């Protein structure tokens, strides 16, 4: 069985951990690197995984998943370089930190793949992007995809497109939750209770997402199916256009990409 170390169990690392466990990976095969005893105790109690220090986690693992903050990735791996061995696979979840930068911090023979998951991985409905580094063999790329597929869907992209993909799927759940929050608040302003507004919004987002996925129709077609000429939906959509919502999404995703590039440059 492939042994896995996860170093950095924050939002993304925790999502991957939950997805791996939910898909059948035994907790005994997953080593979680942590320095804080209270965090280790919480992970042990909640997930049954094996919390150890980072050095030991790396030495035990075939695959090392790095979920720390982007600014900490290179320094962390440099400090652990003596624990790595040729043939190991490092999977980085960090936005902005390129595979050449990660490879430079590791000994020769350690392979690197970047993966950008998202938080729905915790319920097996994630959308992840896999981008291999120059050091990654075909077998390691496939292994990274298989591990990531345990948390949802996977697409392989060249690293040059990873920032754009991150702007859509990596950060995308936050945009959806932002829309949900706005719709719920609108419902409350229209006189609904918060509980009713939340239920109506949540199920509408779930149903619309499933219809988009299952129907195979272009979203414009599905939108038109809801929109009668001169009707209520048309009146609402006209306000979205008046307020430049479509342009705001374009600006937001461009800002996301720009920030990834700033992180890559260390700023």
How would you describe what is shown here?
With 267 residues, the protein is of the alpha/beta class. It has two domains: 4-158, NAD(P)-binding Rossmann-like Domain (Rossmann fold), CATH 3.40.50.720; 172-264, ProC C-terminal domain-like (ProC C-terminal domain-like fold). Helix content is 55%, strand content 14%. The chain is built from twelve helices and eight strands. The chain has helices at 11-22, 37-47, 54-60, 70-79, 99-104, 138-149, 162-170, 172-189, 194-215, 219-226, 232-242, 245-264, and strands at 4-7, 30-33, 50-52, 63-66, 89-92, 111-116, 126-132, 152-156. It has an eight-stranded mixed β-sheet, sandwiched between helices. The protein is elongated and about 70 Å long. The protein starts with a strand and ends with a helix.
Record keyword descriptors for this entry:
12 helices; Rossmann fold; 2 domains; ProC C-terminal domain-like fold; eight-stranded mixed sheet
């Amino acid at each position: 069985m492939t042994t896995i170390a996860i170093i950095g169990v924050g939002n993304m690392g925790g999502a991957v951990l939950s997805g791996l466990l939910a898909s059948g990976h035994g907790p005994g095969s997953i080593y979680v690197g942590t320095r804080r005893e209270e965090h280790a105790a919480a992970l042990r109690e909640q997930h049954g995984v094996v919390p150890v220090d980072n050095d030991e986690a790396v030495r035990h693992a075939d695959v090392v998943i790095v979920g720390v903050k982007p600014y900490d990735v290179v320094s962390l791996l440099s400090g652990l370089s003596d624990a790595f061995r040729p043939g190991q696979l490092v999977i980085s979840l960090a936005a902005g930190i390129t595979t050449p930068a990660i490879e430079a911090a590791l000994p020769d023979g350690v392979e690197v793949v970047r993966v950008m998951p998202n938080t729905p991985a915790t319920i097996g409905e994630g959308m992840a992007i896999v981008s291999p580094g120059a050091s990654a063999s075909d077998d390691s790329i496939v292994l990274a995809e298989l591990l990531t597929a345990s948390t949802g869907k996977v697409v392989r992209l060249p690293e040059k497109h990873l920032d754009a993909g991150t702007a859509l799927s990596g950060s995308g759940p936050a945009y959806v939750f932002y829309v949900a929050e706005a719709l719920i608040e609108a419902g409350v302003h229209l006189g609904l209770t918060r509980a009713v507004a939340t239920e109506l919004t949540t199920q509408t987002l779930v149903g619309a997402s499933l219809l988009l996925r299952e129907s195979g129709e272009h979203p414009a077609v599905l939108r038109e199916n809801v929109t009668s000429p001169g009707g209520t939906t048309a009146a609402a959509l006209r306000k979205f256009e008046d307020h430049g919502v479509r342009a705001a999404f374009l600006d937001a995703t461009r800002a996301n990409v720009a920030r990834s590039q700033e992180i890559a440059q260390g700023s």
